[in-house]
Amino acid sequence: MKTLLVDAMNIFIRSYVVNPTMSDHGHQFGGALGFLKSVGSYSRRFNPDQIIVIWEGGGSPRRKALLPEYKAGRKPIRLNRSEIYEDIPDSRENFNYQVAATTKLLSFTPIKQMYVSDCEADDIIGYLSKHVLEDEVIIASSDKDFYQLLTDKICMYSPTRKKMITVEDVLEEHCIHPENFATARSFVGDNSDNIDGLRGVGLKTLAKRFPMLNNSEFVSIDDIISKCRDVPSGSRLKIHNSILEKNDLVKRNWKLMYLDICNLSADHVQKIEERFQYIETKRDKLNMIRQLIEEGINMPRSFDPHKFFLDLSTVK
After folding, report:
1. Which residues lie across from 163 on neighbouring strands?
2. Structural contact between residues 63 and 70, judged by C-beta atoms closer than 8 angstroms
3. Which among 290, 285, 294 is positioned nearest to 29, based on CA atoms?
4. What does the pLDDT profile of the chain (316 residues) look like in tens digits?
5. Is 1 helix (H, G, I), strand (E, B) or coil?
6. Rounded to whole angstroms, how far apart are CA atoms 291 and 298?
7. How far is Cα 147 from Cα 125, in angstroms, rounded to an integer?
8. What span, in angstroms and rounded, lies between the C-alpha atoms of 106 and 99?
9. Strand partners, 137
10. How far apart are CA 40 and CA 140, in angstroms?
11. Which residues contact 281 (CB under 8 A, 6 or more apart)?
12. Is the whole model's pTM more than 0.70, yes or no?
């Protein structure tokens, strides 16, 4: 059983930003159509037995409690348009409308959708990958947070890099094993999520000073701190002192960045498992076409539903 997990908002935003398709009603609809085309192309390329699209559930209360600034103040999504399309409205209302339209259109397909309130898509993907899905898993996303999940059976397709990311790719690029990627990033931080790291500390520096991160055996934050303490005070480098002085910040970052059940409540876990088991899907091309007509979509020029369902031929 091969499963394709789609980081929905990551893929949708990419489509929304670059796709200028307009409906016959004069509304921008490129995000929705671009998303469907992307998922169709992934299905055609990887031939999965099932596809699960995971939507954001409004953020993680546990992470917000640890860091109130977590993911706060993100820059608004801007459309990447040429002068030809400068009159296309760039609004939160249009964005939300297209997300809702996408979920509606997906409901006519054999693609499963998951949404759990107050639960991040990252955590759902992490839980499914580690604790539910037993066979091959492909994660469609450009988010490096998922590097920590990569194993022999879990890989990641990056649409921005247009390639599959494997354990070997992460090792080659960063000299850090995916098993230890969350540990390493806890020292570096993540500006996109407002998670401060240690000043002047990057992944390459960590890999050089702590080559144990290259191994497949798990290395904890405490293991790194212990290594720093073992260095005689007169021989310590700036990175050693920085880690020892800011170890509380690094331990907090681990709690923010590690993908497992630590940021999920028992209720979250129950809902994820129930929705995974009991989500019903269908193949209803006719009603999808009717919905596209209602949206004012030019078929097949803007979107070809017949090709889309053909792309999903392996999905059960």
Report:
1. 158
2. yes
3. 294
4. 999 999 999 999 999 988 888 999 988 999 999 999 999 999 999 999 999 999 998 878 888 888 888 877 555 455 554 443 444 455 788 899 999 999 999 999 999 999 999 999 999 999 999 999 999 999 999 999 999 999 999 999 999 999 999 999 999 999 999 999 999 999 999 988 889 999 989 999 999 999 999 999 999 999 999 999 999 988 999 999 999 999 999 999 999 999 988 889 999 999 999 999 998 899 999 999 999 999 999 999 999 999 999 999 999 9
5. coil
6. 12
7. 12
8. 11
9. 3, 154
10. 12
11. 109, 110, 111, 112
12. yes
Nearest residue to 110 (alpha-carbon basis) of 277, 274, 314: 314
Distance of alpha carbon 17 from alpha carbon 30, whole angstroms: 8
Token pair listed for 288: 């999808």
Can you tell me which residue has the tokens 């990569």? Answer: 150
Amino acid in the structure at residue 8: A
- Taken in order 272, 129, 118, 140, the sign of the CA dihedral is negative
Helix (H) or strand (E) holding 228: helix 221-230
Q: Tell me, what DSSP letter sits at residue 76?
A: P
The strand ranges marked E within 154-261 are 154-158, 163-165
Q: Tokens at residue 214, please?
A: 């290259």
Residue written as token pair 């091309």: 285
Strand ranges inside the chain, DSSP E: 3-7, 50-54, 112-114, 137-140, 154-158, 163-165
| Best CA proximity match to 315, nearest among 90, 19, 44, 58 | 44
Report the relative pairing of strands 163-165 and 154-158 from DSSP bridges.
antiparallel
- Per DSSP (E only), the strands in 194-271 are none
